[in-house]
Design a protein that fits this description.
With 156 residues, the protein is of the alpha+beta class. 38% of the residues lie in helices and 26% in strands. The chain has three helices and seven strands, in the order βααββββββα. The chain has helices spanning 22-45, 50-71, 135-148; strands at residues 11-15, 76-82, 85-92, 95-101, 107-109, 118-122, 125-129. It is rod-shaped. The two termini are 23 Å apart.
């Protein structure tokens, strides 16, 4: 039988850390385009027009890398226990995947190694979370989550 639901609804969120905002990224790319184009034009005026081709290829490759970076800048994973149900939401490149688990038939495995993730399993499905957290944080969240779920001991 599930525990009584308290007013507190615990939630854990793991966020990918990004060093640059979208505006900073755009400014850096604009500055790179300005300098690269200036150099390409200077060489083109001296008769070395093929330098412009390399400049365009370089700026295209950098643009692709920055788009990939920006696309994954807001990735996150969230675990929440609401109204007696465990929800896991994973967002990667703006694709959202949600899973719902009934707490009394859900098992939480605590990561033992530094590369292991928190594994949440229920009959017929499994989800791994914690990609954006440190090993210690993953262990802490897994133990807290185990303590909150009914029927499972909070120990390792």
């Amino acid at each position: 039988m599930p525990r009584d639901c308290s007013r507190e609804q615990p939630e854990w969120r793991f966020i990918r850390h990004s060093a640059l905002t979208a505006r900073q990224l755009l400014r850096a790319y604009g500055l790179l385009c300005f300098f690269s184009t200036s150099i390409a034009v200077a060489f083109a005026l001296r008769g070395y027009w093929y330098i412009s081709l390399f400049s365009v290829m370089e700026l295209s490759a950098v643009a692709a890398a920055l788009l990939y970076y920006q696309r994954h800048a807001r990735d996150y994973e969230q675990i929440s226990l609401r109204d007696g149900v465990l929800f896991v939401e994973q967002v990667s490149a703006r694709r959202r995947r949600r899973s719902r688990f009934e707490p009394w038939c859900t098992r939480i495995s605590v990561p033992r190694g530094p590369r292991q993730l928190i594994r949440i399993t229920a009959p017929g499905r499994q989800v791994e979370v914690g990609r954006y957290a440190t090993h210690e944080r993953r262990q802490q969240v897994a133990l807290e989550l185990r303590a909150l779920l009914p029927g499972l001991p909070p120990s390792l």
